[in-house]
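Hey, resending since the last one bounced:
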Amino acid sequence: MRVLVVEDDRVLAAQLRDALSDAGYAVDHADNGVDAHYLGEVEPYDVVVLDLGLPRMDGITVLKKWRSAGRAMPVVILTARDGWHEKVAGIDAGADDYLGKPFHME
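The structure tokens again:
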């Protein structure tokens, strides 16, 4: 299974990458929205873990672009933005789930 982790926090990205790799997943990483958008367009990911507060292009914009282009891979938003309206905006943009930071890896 191929996973794209889109996270600009280097420590958290490394923790996610390591945990998912240890669980047997093939993991790619992007630390900004422009690179994430490109990878999501050209690679066949089984799932994407997507931060919202990204440099160069925010996560909601990335997600909307993927969905408008017909990209249907499941997307889990992982963000510190945990307000109700942000959750609704994420789901409305096409996210399949929404997880607030901080979280427990288990």
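The chain has a mean pLDDT of 94.

Sorry for the duplicate.
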